[in-house]
Design goal:
single chain; about 325 residues; mainly alpha; 2 domains; two-stranded parallel ribbon
């Protein structure tokens, strides 16, 4: 955790973990029982009231809209630094040690997403790795699985779907909560779709839908946002990869309408998917319009990863510059370079 925190301000670090290294991490997590947080008897006693406040304020910060990340990011990093110092230097009971490790895992996971969205992939890797280990010590298998699945999602984004599918298989081996399992199966379906493994993709989509529809359990904080909207849109994303743009468009349209305003970053990604599905069907003008909307949202929240997504998509519009709306899209994209 200390290394991940220090890397956050080190712009010289560019390399992400290799698929083999991430596979080893996932296998280790899936097969080795956690060494639960021990009682610490050295240092100044940790006040449980301080831990209460750190937990409460961290929840408040992470619940704010994505557009506020330029302000919440440094505050969350400060919280993590405090937690690390309490773990390293404080005296605390076993129960407080569990709480501190759980909070460290949650903060590391959130900060990893911040860095991922800014395309600081190596730092995001280390934060997620720290989250896996902190969750392991807290005995929280679902949170550890969530951090592993986030790394798998990053692997897919970076064009490594096989590594993602393998890591998600390990992560699923110890995941308990139905909503958490639904999310992991959905991401695994995405990996199989990228690999054009249709049967495995449909099997995982069915599992994700069944788990999400049947559960009455409270979802863990790290995946409380998982909803029918995410299931619908990611199903559509799978269908695009499997060559079914018409069905994909219907699924994505359904999901986009269900998203709350607070999830503008997700909406930016989903609109880009929808634009891609329309482009594949020949509806060029509407596809260009949605791509511009996606770009506008991404710029508002400062998510360079989402801006790059539209840049990549715009390359497919380049030969169609004479079509309605395409020239404006290409102009807007050019301004982002």
């Amino acid at each position: 955790m200390r290394k991940a925190s220090q890397m956050a301000v080190d712009r010289r670090t560019f390399l992400t973990y290799t698929p083999a290294a991430l596979g080893a991490l996932a296998l280790e997590w899936a097969t080795i029982d956690p060494a639960l947080a021990a009682t610490s008897t050295s240092g100044r006693p940790v006040d449980p009231a301080l831990v209460d406040w750190l937990e409460s304020s961290a929840r408040d910060l992470t619940s704010l809209p994505t557009a506020h990340r330029q302000y919440t990011g440094p505050l969350l990093h400060g919280h993590l630094t405090t937690v690390i110092e309490l773990l390293e230097q404080g005296s605390y009971s076993h129960a407080v040690g569990i709480r501190l490790h759980s909070l460290a895992a949650s903060l590391s996971q959130t900060l990893a997403w911040h860095r991922f969205d800014y395309e600081h992939h190596a730092v995001a890797n280390r934060y997620w790795h720290a989250a896996v280990h902190a969750a392991h010590q807290a005995g929280d298998r679902d949170m550890g699985a969530g951090a592993l699945s986030d790394i798998a999602y990053q692997s897919m984004w970076l064009g490594q779907p096989r590594a993602a599918a393998d890591n998600l298989e390990h992560a699923l081996s110890r995941t308990i909560n139905p909503t958490a399992r639904s999310l992991l199966f959905l991401r695994k379906a995405r990996a199989h779709a990228m690999l054009h493994e249709a049967r495995a993709c449909y099997r995982d989509l069915a599992q994700a839908e069944k788990l999400l529809d049947s559960t009455t359990d409270t979802a863990p904080q790290w995946c409380f946002w998982m909803s029918p909207a995410d299931l619908a849109v990611d199903t559509g994303r799978c269908l695009i990869d499997l060559g079914q743009p018409g069905r994909a468009h219907d699924q994505i349209s359904q999901g986009v309408t269900l998203l709350p305003t607070a999830r503008d970053k997700t909406k930016a990604v989903f609109l880009a998917y929808k634009a891609e599905s329309l482009l594949a069907q020949g509806d060029i003008a509407q596809a260009a319009l949605l791509a511009r909307q996606s770009l506008g949202l991404a710029q508002q929240i400062g998510a360079s990863r989402c801006i790059q997504q539209v840049r990549d998509l715009s390359a497919t519009f380049a030969p169609l510059s004479s079509e309605q709306g395409v020239d404006r899209l290409l102009y807007d994209v050019a301004l982002t370079n």
